[in-house]
Design goal:
Chains A, B: Pfam families: Pyridox_ox_2. The structure is a homodimer. Chain A is of the alpha+beta class and about 140 residues long. Chain A contains 3 helices and 8 strands, in the order E-H-E-E-E-H-E-E-H-E-E. The radius of gyration of chain A is 16 Å and the shape is globular.
Chain lengths: ~140, ~140
């Protein structure tokens, strides 16, 4: 098995195709991670909106320039083939009412009944890898 | 859809059943995340060993008391049902030759050809959640 690096374009396309991912942030100086669903906006911003993000929301509010990572993957545990993409950048709470309304239409939270915030992650650093059979290396 | 908290025992059993997860750590003051395969040892330590952990290995070497998080999940993106578990604790490079040999037998890296290290994550904090239909709340 080999690891093949993905281009930024391939990585963003795969992330956009994924139904959910995991947001990674620092909370009380500890690494934190939780699954959320997302959309990738036309400007490649990763937008999340769920109850699961509530702790992240507090953290983003407390520090407007918080850097987070967002990861999605699709890996076959039997064949050990698949991909993983990580976007790293500043997460900001969306405050513009028109953008909030638009994202609330496009992105339905999986967990009901709790007020949530809309957070947009700037795609400053985009990395991706594909696990491929060694023979594909030269392809 | 509701979020149901898992007990530590349930969470560790689910994590042990998962073929892989994602290790979350801080690198150059930035959140970092990458998929790896793992085993859960009898003492609930999460053990990882892959080329994907090489950046983590450098970080662990530089700071013997580095705290990491390890996440695994199994979520159906259609039905929005499933679970996620996060273990948070100190990650240490395993240096005892007998333990290394044992883990090298039990845990085969998915990516070939690169010298790796064995890292054990102490399960100090274990959290888990299950996404369940609202009707299951009272079950």
């Amino acid at each position: 098995m080999d690891v093949v690096e993905l281009s930024r374009g391939e990585a963003m396309r795969l992330l956009a195709s994924a139904p959910f991912g995991r947001v990674v942030f620092t909370r009380n100086a500890m690494p934190a991670v939780r699954p959320v669903n997302h959309i990738v906006d036309t400007d490649d911003f990763v937008v999340i909106r769920t109850r699961l993000a509530s702790r992240l929301t507090s953290a983003v509010r407390a520090d407007a320039e918080m850097v987070v990572a967002y990861e999605a993957d699709d890996i076959d545990p039997i064949g050990h083939l698949g991909w993983s993409v990580v976007v790293t950048g500043i997460a900001r709470q969306v405050t513009d009412p028109e953008r909030i309304a638009r994202y609330e239409r496009l992105l339905q939270p999986w967990v009901e009944g709790v007020r949530d915030s809309v957070i947009a992650i700037e795609p400053t650093l985009v990395t991706g890898l594909r696990l491929a059979h060694s023979a594909e290396r030269s392809a």
